[in-house]
Amino acid sequence: MPPPAADGFAEMRQLEAILEAGAHRLDACQVGEVGAGRQRFPLYTASIGSADPRAPAIGFFAGIHGLERIGTHLLLDYMRMLLWRLEWDELLERQLQSVRLLFMPIVNPGGMWASTRANPNGVDLMRNAPQDAEGRVPPLAGGQRLGPWLPWYRGRLGAPMEEESLSMLRVVSQQLQQRPLSFALDCHSGYGWGDSIWFPYARTAAPMAHLPEMFALKTMFEQAHPHHGYAFEPQSHQYLLHGDLWDWAYDHTPASNIFLPMTLELGSWLWIKKNPRQLFSRHGFFNPVKAHRTERVLRRHANLLDFLGRVAYAPERWLPRGERREQLQALATAQWPPRGGPR
User: Fold this and answer.
1) What is the pTM of this model?
2) Nearest 10 degrees: Cα torsion 177, 180, 181, 183
3) Of 3.40.50.1450, 3.10.100.10, 1.10.357.10, 3.40.630.10, which CATH number belongs to 10-335?
């Protein structure tokens, strides 16, 4: 395990404790170091499961926006649960002989330490990739280059991506995209009355190439968990934006491989409706404050994380081929019709 951070915060200390407790099972790695000035933080990943480089893999990510701590808590809780279950759960042990799980629970430690959405350079990492949207984006929120004194700053035009963005994309490229089949789930919060699962594209209303596979995934999840309550859709059905990292990663996946990135967007407006005083706290706008609501969030989404591990175990039983794939393409297009092209 890498050495602990010299000056951390609660979530970083929890992550380092998990890496230490699970050292006999987890492959932990420091993939970078970020921060500003003398305040530096490590970027950790932890992997578990099959060592076969062609085995299906799922990457779980959180903390890209430093204010959105609940996604990090969800992954830390899930990592603890996996380690406990592996003491007695033989079925999970067998599953992990064929599947690789990857965790990067704190992508933006400097932002989390400072309680800011952006990283210490003022850059919103989820607007930091170089591609522009193919239509109108929401003012400011779609990504802006006016300066870091305003939110949703993309970074300077032509500048390299931020180290946090580059480190995460390197992890995705090396550990996910080179496999025949991989998934990513990126945990966020702060948008909407309910929870959503979004998938590419954010930059365009055009459909992704693997729309049939995403529709098959959605259908299986609905069948396994009919009362799940997620809105499952392309992000473009909500709004377009510049510089989405998952659009960038998806578009740079080898054509022979299937990479299915998703964003879990935990709707926070209901938390605020039930406790309006949260509006007076930046932390409260993006995270449940009441203990029982936090516990409910941590319970509610474990089924989704487990589901991804199970579908990765036997992809030959559900990945659509030939005529079946054509049928799912038609069903998916009817379910998620492009919304008027550029806007």
Assistant:
1) 0.94
2) 0
3) 3.40.630.10
